[in-house]
């Protein structure tokens, strides 16, 4: 068991995940309870059009550690994550994707790293030498290109901002929650830039990824990639021209 001495909140966004969200929640409960005593799962229904909310409620009836958050209109993954963060009770806050391409068991090592090295943020990195990937080549290329872009623009010393598994101290993430304006896939970089500007210490850990959406491999398409590109430049403007994320706010 990881001796956190406090509660862990696991934030899980979900959009049109009726086929897997119930099983994902039950599996996450089983795994996380094996290494953390006090925890909750804050699962956010991001305006799903299917039976995702119904399945979340079914899971919550079986285990009170599952806390549903829901709203009617789809607002994007970034908004869902931050909605969950701001309603979390834990002093440690983790992110997990609903498809569990990243096994929740990996959180144990991330929390140990955070405690051992006194880090404020620990993130998964696909480009870590110890990472194990079963991952489409197209997504590898997109991820590497985005990393190079961020390295040039922000000088942020992390190789991968987009991997879905992350752990934050609540004291690092909650003070900047109201500053996050990006609702889509670029929310990761805005969040990491914001906490970095406030002096947070960030560590990277390897990931083991199993790509489970074989029939929907193009879930993130060219339109999404273009929006990430535009959002990244907006973040650049807020960082260097508006000093938007600085401590004064």
UniProtKB/TrEMBL annotation:
One GO term (biological process): protein N-linked glycosylation
InterPro entries documented for this protein: Glyco_trans_2-like, Nucleotide-diphossugar_trans
Keyword Transferase belongs to the record: yes
Q: Which SUPFAM superfamilies match?
A: Nucleotide-diphospho-sugar transferases (SSF53448)
Bilayer-crossing regions: 141-158
One matching Pfam family: Glycos_transf_2
Give every Glycosyltransferase 2-like domain span: 9-174
Could you confirm whether the keyword tRNA-binding appears in this record? no
The GO terms this record gives for MF are: transferase activity
Print the keywords alphabetically. Answer: Membrane, Transferase, Transmembrane, Transmembrane helix
Family annotation (PANTHER family): DOLICHYL-PHOSPHATE BETA-GLUCOSYLTRANSFERASE (PTHR10859:SF91), GLYCOSYL TRANSFERASE (PTHR10859)
Q: What is this protein called?
A: Glycosyltransferase involved in cell wall bisynthesis
Record the organism. Answer: Lachnospira pectinoschiza
